[in-house]
Design a protein that fits this description.
Blueprint (H helix, E strand, L loop, with lengths): L1 H7 L1 E7 L2 H15 L3 E3 L3 E2 L18 E4 L16 E2 L11 H10 L4 E2 L4 H18 L2 E5 L21 H8 L2 E5 L1 H10 L2 H13 L1 E3 L5 H21 L3 E4 L1 H8 L5 H9 L4 E3 L3 H14 L4 E6 L12 H13 L2 E6 L11 E4 L9 E3 L5 E8 L5 E14 L5 E7 L2 H7 L4 E6 L3 H11 L2 E4 L2
Parallel strand pairs: 1-2, 1-3, 1-4, 5-6, 7-8, 7-10, 9-14, 10-11, 17-20
Antiparallel strand pairs: 12-13, 12-19, 13-18, 14-15, 16-17, 16-19, 17-18
């Protein structure tokens, strides 16, 4: 638990000349940042500030706050830690401008604020950067863009250069063969699965035609993934379900992925690595699950398959004229839903299991990290209608200011939504992570 907690907070260490000034800064920062931050033991230099302060740095320090003026700040330029120049209440401090320039010219990463809201936003995205950099991703199954088995590829529009992914976000990606996962599913103790099932059953409003024994198989799948996540000390996952898992064993992981997202473990499907990275950025910034899904310009079909071409073309004309799109998929975390689950078969096929839960209407942020993992396209939209679909389990109808341009700029059928307007935070994150953020307005 301590390891999980250490990834979720920013550890701040304050250096000052007077204890009362340090305590005042702590109180102000905590009031603004809340549980985003925790404070490490502070350091008081009541006389001379040493030229090398690295021996005084706590090993857990993420952010340094020096409460000094003039050349007394120079030693902090050489410690390779982000520096916050804190001034009264988190508001603009005229005397800190020169300190900022001085430290920046020496190569330090420095932040100062005009308002407390800017301070909180900056601390949030610094925490997002930390969480991304300390994350380990598991990719279950054949990697869609690198496999030699064409029939196992699936969605291929991600960045398969894992070193580049690490360069941008700091996270590492490890592949887990699907056969290994399925062997772990077979090893799950039935009594343990039945005990876990009690919690799952309580979150279902209506089982429909789904048998409880069938749902128990999904619980076993979830427990196997959780075991592997723990063994690997991993934080997020995606699974190549459509093109790999289903060819080996037809078990739909949708509800297992929803449960993981509810537990603060970003979990994506179809082996779409860049969709997962987008989910992680949203989840780590907002502390709430996000949803990946397809953006379509046509109505759902009641069952496997899609409407005929003439219907899709007519719908596309209508949707584009209204700046309307349909966002649809099968994984709904209950933490952001308004109801319990109504279970049904996968894509109305008579087999597999997915769940529908009512999603709220309102403002959302929509985004997708591009194929080279160093570019994100982002916009806001409004969910104006949500319905249970006969194909994917839900359809959320979105209104965008400039739907055409968003579709032109995004790089995949899969995009990700999170509730609220988080564009300002993501743009700030882009600046500190060298991630190009393209806002569609």
């Amino acid at each position: 638990m301590d390891g999980e907690k250490s990834k979720k907070v920013l550890y701040i260490q304050i250096f000052g000349s007077k204890t009362e000034n340090v305590e005042k800064a702590k109180k102000e920062i905590k009031e603004i940042a809340g549980d985003i931050v925790e404070f490490l033991p502070d350091v008081i230099f009541d006389k001379k500030i040493p030229s090398d302060i690295s021996p005084y740095l706590n090993i857990k320090t993420d952010i340094v706050v020096p409460l000094f003026l003039g050349l007394d700040v120079e030693p902090f330029a050489y410690i390779k830690k982000p520096i916050i120049l804190w001034t009264e209440g988190g508001y603009y401090g005229a005397w800190s401008k020169d300190l900022n320039s001085f430290l920046t010219l020496k190569g330090a990463e420095v932040y100062q604020f005009i308002t407390p809201s800017e301070a909180r936003e900056t601390l949030k995205v610094l925490r997002t950067r930390k969480r991304m950099s300390k994350s380990k991703i598991l990719y279950f199954g054949e990697m869609a863009g690198t496999t030699a088995h064409r029939d196992l590829s699936g969605v291929i529009g991600s960045d398969w250069n894992l070193e580049r992914v690490k360069d941008v976000f700091g996270c590492i990606v490890k592949q887990i063969p699907m056969d290994y996962l399925l062997k772990e599913v077979d090893k799950v103790n039935l009594d343990s699965a039945k005990e876990e099932f009690k919690e799952w059953e309580d979150k279902v409003e209506d089982f429909g035609d789904i048998s409880k024994d069938g749902y128990l198989e999904v619980v076993k799948f979830y427990l196997a993934m959780k075991k592997i996540l723990k063994e690997q000390d991993a934080d997020a996952l995606t699974i190549n379900c459509l093109s790999d898992l289903f060819k080996k064993k037809f078990i739909t992981p949708c509800q297992a992925l929803a449960k993981l997202n509810d537990e603060d473990i970003p979990a994506g499907c179809e082996g779409d690595l860049n969709a997962l990275l987008t989910m992680m950025v949203f989840h780590y910034t907002t502390d709430t699950p996000s949803i990946m899904g397809n953006i379509y310009l046509f109505r759902p079909e009641n069952g496997p398959g899609f409407p005929p071409p003439e219907v899709r073309v007519a719908d596309a004309k209508e949707y584009l004229s209204q700046n309307k799109a349909r966002f649809t998929h099968d994984v709904i975390p209950l933490r952001i839903a308004k109801s319990k689950y109504f279970l049904t078969t996968y894509h109305n096929s008579g087999k597999g299991i997915t769940g529908y839960a009512e999603l709220p209407k309102g403002e959302i942020t929509v985004a997708r990290i591009g194929p080279e993992a160093n570019r994100m396209v982002i916009t806001t939209a409004e969910i104006v209608e949500v319905e249970k679909s006969g194909h994917c389990s839900f359809s959320a109808y979105l209104k965008m200011k400039n739907l055409e341009e968003y579709l032109r700029q995004t790089s995949s059928i899969h995009n990700v939504i999170t509730y609220g307007n988080h564009i300002s935070e993501i743009k700030k994150l882009g600046k500190i992570m060298n991630l190009k953020v393209v806002e569609i307005g």
